[in-house]
Amino acid sequence: KSRTRRRTWQLWQDITQDKEVDRMKSALLSTVSHELRTPLATIKGFASTLLAEDVKWSVTAQREFLEAISNESDRLTRLVQNLLDMSRIEAGMLTIQCELYSLNDLLAEVVQSFTNTHNGRIRTYPAPDLPPVWMDIPRIGTVIRNLIENGIKYSPADAPVEIATVQQSDMVILSARDHGPGIPTELQDKVFDRFFQVEKGLSRSAGGSGLGLAISKGFIEAHNGKIWVSDADPGAMFTFSLPIDGLDGEG
Question: Which end of the chain has the lower number of beta carbons within 10 A, N or C?
Answer without folding.
Answer: N
